[in-house]
Amino acid sequence: MSTLPYLPGGVDELPAERFLVFADGNNKVQRFDESATTADGVAFTGLWESVTLNRGSKVHDCRIQTVTLFYSVQTATTLTLGVSVDGGRTWTDKIVNLAATVEGEISDVTTNFNLCGKDIRIRIQFDQAVPVKVFELFPSLIYEGGVEFSTT
Amino acid sequence: MNKFGRIQPYQVQPREPDRPVLERLDGGFRGDVSPRVAPPHCSPNLDAVRFEQGALRKDFGYVGIGTAAPSRILALAEHKFIDGGKSYQRLIRIYRDPSGHAVLSVWTGTAWTVVGVSTETIRDVYLSTASIQGKFVFSDGEKILYWGEQSEVVTWEADFPNGEVIGAIGETTQVAVTAAVKGYSDYMLNYLVDISGASVGGVDLVIEIYHNDTLLTTRLYQHPASAKVTQTQWLNETYIANVDAEDGDLFKIKVADLSYIGISDVVHHFFLPVGTETAIGVLPVPANDRYNFSFNYTISGPTYHHGEIYPSVMGVRLEVDLLGNGNWVTLKDVQISGKLSGDSSGTYSDHFILSGVTAVTRFRVNEYTVGETGAGSISSDVDISWVKAGSAPPVIMVRGKNKATTGDADAGLVWHTLGFAISVFELISADAPGARIVAPFADRLIGLRDGGDTQALGWSTSGDIRDWVGTGSGSIVLVNSRMDALDDLMGFAELGSNLGALFRKRSIDRVFPTGNILQAIGVVPWIPGVGTEFPFSIQNGLGGVFFLGHDRMVYRLSETGLSPAGRSIQQELIKQLTDNLENVDSAYDSVFNEYILGIPEAGSRTITKLWILDVDHFNLTGEERWRSRNVNVQRLAAVSTL
Question: How close A64 comes to chain B (CA, Å)?
């Protein structure tokens, strides 16, 4: 049974005369299936990367302490949450456990990173065959201190 | 003096930066600005995600359909058609066999079935396709081929009862549907009608035709007024019943009404061969016992005796055996003389009175020679006739046909059913252009680029895509574009029933039916400066036609003009889309209203990335929301059924 909100319970396909198909690189015809969580039986990963989060300052380093993620999922699963402090050149990934939520409920989970750099970005990798919806991200950001000079 | 004496260093306390708002994550891809300045709900890098309720989620998976083709799939498209009152959809894939012939296979729901292999070879390029007038058409730049599927028509027959004739009001004759298969709804009844008689006002016969007990039609047959008995026949009457009939259903013919005004005197004839003894049979006898009789004769020339000339004389004796018991009585004994020179001929007429004639009454007539004169003979049957005054009503005969036993040319009931599908796969016409692109427009097939001429536009006649020379067909070479010395024709899209968009490399033209059959299609310049190099990027969608412009900008084209819809990805496409431009493909998802653009990145021969535009969001807000998916694709399509 599909866990996707597009489809009512027990309905495996959209009740509409429309299917998206394509011929893949191996000359095999495939169709996108709203209830499928693999790509022709093979696991695949969904990736989303944020823009630079700390663009307010070009001077100070910025520390990202935690990332809180607001989500809903019908089956407990995991995803991989990554933080880069160097504009996406290197990443620190952490696996985040997501507890199951009931329909309509949004839960949250906070992951500690405590990393410092000039260009803070977050990425989410949906690497499990369970549909997860991420509604919001809350990064805890703090500028690192520095020396400024004043004429007063 | 310390010049920095007035400057006081101090420790700045840590403070929070401007917090990005990440309350939604559905901004989509932004590649036109730096990630440092892009809105926080957007993304500079994403793959296989989609947006739902402002949230982010993993994209749908996909499943294989059947087994792989043995070579590159050059076309993947849906063909819809109507046959025998039913509509059909076929998902079609086309690839080349090792010798270069096109192999067309159809998805049956469980497997790919090859339904045709072309006689002609095709080029190894993505094929342009169109489904029009019940035919699936495709072109490769050198020729246009079509595939059609028609169900075999099976003919069924059943007969009315052998020899069953109806003639009285209320009588019926019927035939049954015998095969347990539904027909086309065209059940053809074959029957004949015969009216003979004489009437002052003519004869009107009304018959009714029924399907079971349902009256289908009423038919009137009129026999003209006549003083003599005449006959009118309708020997090949047909009626086609457009009904859904089941096995065992009956089709009936019924004599519903018969009317005539007055009955004329009727002349009856009885023909008697010479030398025979023939019974008169059941013919009605005259009330006044008066009979006429006549015959034709020939008599030989005169004879000579002792120098004198004598005409030849023939004798004719008419006898009757009134009771049929061998008691012959002479009715007439006549002698007819010939001429005094040469042979003679003529008709002899006379009458006699005879009462007591019955069905067994026999007549006979004999010739004899008189004396020594020459011979004579009767050259026709003897016609014995009499008049029966006003006593014979018209005779009606209605009979359903019977082919098997009676020997009629047609069966009484003929109908058809659909049998196995018959596949036709051939050149659409020897006269058609060697089009690279084909498209339907105004009930015609449009062909772009005839062989090597990239500016040639051709079209078939209206209603017949196989006729490229008949009245209404035509072609034009679109030279003198102000945008380019050779502004190649690249693609076509219907914007409305009377408006098409002709995409060129650097401009767009309007195409319209002129109403003048001598030049049925007209073309005028429309939008200069924007064209396309990607013929398969053109898709009809909500709000207009979406396509990838030659400048790598995705546009929406409507009757009001162009709207850019690909600013977020234009820079990315300029960077990645460098080669194999003809292999860009697209589809339109009519449920989620998404335009899907597939591009081969960095010189790849196949598509490596799908770019997907939320068309609903774009139409409502003007904001672009693009997402992408890295997947290896050859052709894309949206279909109705699987």
Answer: 10
